[in-house]
Amino acid sequence: MRIVVLAKPVPDATGQERLRQDFRLDREAVPAVINGNDEYALEAALKLVEASPDGGEVVLLAMAPGDAPETIRKGLALGAARAVLITDPALEGSCALTTAHVLAAALRGLSFDLVLAGVDTSDGSGGVVAAGIAVLLGLPYLSYAARIEPSDGHVRVRRITPTGYEVLDAPMPALISATQALGEPRYPALKGIMAARRKEIATRSLADLDLCGAVVGGAAATSRVTSSRPRAPRGTPRIVRGSQDEAVREVVAFLAERRLI
Amino acid sequence: MSGAIWVLGESKGTELARVSAEAATLGRVLGETAGREVIGVIAGASPEGVAADLARYVPVVHSLVVPAAAGMAVAVAVAPSLAALIEREQPAYLLVGATSDGRDIAGMLSALLGWGVIANASAIGWQDGEPEVEVSVFGGKLLTTSVFTGGHGIITVRPTSVTAEPLAAPGAVVAVTVTASVTLPAVAVIDRVTEASEAVPIEEASVIVCGGRGVGGPEGMDLVQALADVLGGAVGATRAPVDSGWVPYSQQIGQTGKTVKPKLYIGLGVSGALQHTVGMQTAETIVAVNRDAEAPIVEAADLVVIGDLFAVAPALISALKARSG
Q1: N or C: at which end does chain A have fewer Cβ atoms within 10 angstroms?
Q2: Do A15 and B274 touch (CB under 8 A)?
Q3: Does B287 contact chain A (CB < 8 Å)?
Q4: What is the ipTM of this complex?
Q5: CA distance B245 to A105
Q6: Nearest to A214 by CA among A95, A97, A115, A122
Q7: Structure pTM?
Q8: Alpha-carbon dihedral of residues A78, A81, A87, A91, nearest 10 degrees?
Q9: If you average pLDDT over every residue of chain A, what do you get?
């Protein structure tokens, strides 16, 4: 079982995230971490390879700035065998569609049974890149996975729906988007951290990719941010202490005042 | 008609999803401002009923039968036909709810058509002949406006961004047919299971009562449920109760769960870690009950009760029952 996991370095949710003057994400303002939903994808991939009778490997694929190896190494410490990093100054300011083209091109150079990615990322939150990649590569697309069961060249996915779930089935290779319901990521062991230092992170630039004619990069982005402003502050909170009856009276009065009851 | 604004509706069971009615209302208002035609679209195995629902909000709805949608993952089944219809009719913009199916379809259409996606719109204006899309980022800390660079694009619309308002008289449903020029690899649906859960998906709820680590166990979640019931709201949770198995993952609010924007959010035993607040801090009114006056939720809320939720919540439930009774 060979699995490629799309792992995006994103700003850690510290509350310090900000945009630069040009309204692009200021990636230097906060430390980067692997996107939370991608960590669930990685954990699921590691478990699938561990359970596979013929073994296999997990490869991380990221499109990120040149300083990403530090973040990617955390994924290698968890058990991924190696990583491919697509990095190029021209990629700054990419949109979801051009990102999908770049990742699809990188995947054309890798062999795999499954590609796993988080359902969305905590910085962009669009949740559309994985579906785009599946279309560009002609891969079956199984999304919002809570369970992944490969067998006999097919893969079965329990997909979370607004009212419950559905069971999807498609032949491999396939692309799956991963949710937290797949299970908690493991912690890196000291041995894993040591081993990660020697694992390969192959760096590729745009010139190394077969983009099949797609125009990519920040200059080809299909949308741009034109302004930003802080949300109106909420104001000082009203704090209620004292007896339970008083507290309840205050809450009821407050809700009535705001016409919420 | 070329240059139109289209709204793609989705069904929830046999009805129109609430977010689609909201997106249709948003699209209609945008069309009036822009002087562009607004058309709804429903694509599925039997779209007629839901198309009639969508026509309550927009003057014209295209009803597109895609037989394959019966036994196949919805996005995979409908995206090629929708792409063909869009290429033929040449609308300029497509609005769709930011739901799981909506995002899947948006991503696929983006790749099929070469159109960009602006995700999670909370409002859409019209400026200099194109839509100006407002998006809340970094968990609601900032509001950005974005535009497309190519004169067309797909906008996913966050649930509860606007209130759905029907037309005075319903619009017309027009059956359309199209031949898709591409097929996508089939993804079969083996089973569809409805689980006993909230009547309204949490992203669409106007009142949410949320349990945090402080609820301590299933009994605490029962209190959360009881308060939600008396307010006609939905139950939400932070990650801790979900990880402990007291609440299904579908109700989780925060970074790796749902983003919600209810009119009223009440947090019981919620400390207010950033991983949670990024998913709820754009709620209109936030009330919290917490023992710890130093908890970060205090800064995020409008009204905070410093006290024991096991005492405050039952008393609040009785008071609300007495009031409505």
Answers
A1: C
A2: yes
A3: yes
A4: 0.95
A5: 40
A6: A97
A7: 0.93
A8: -70
A9: 95
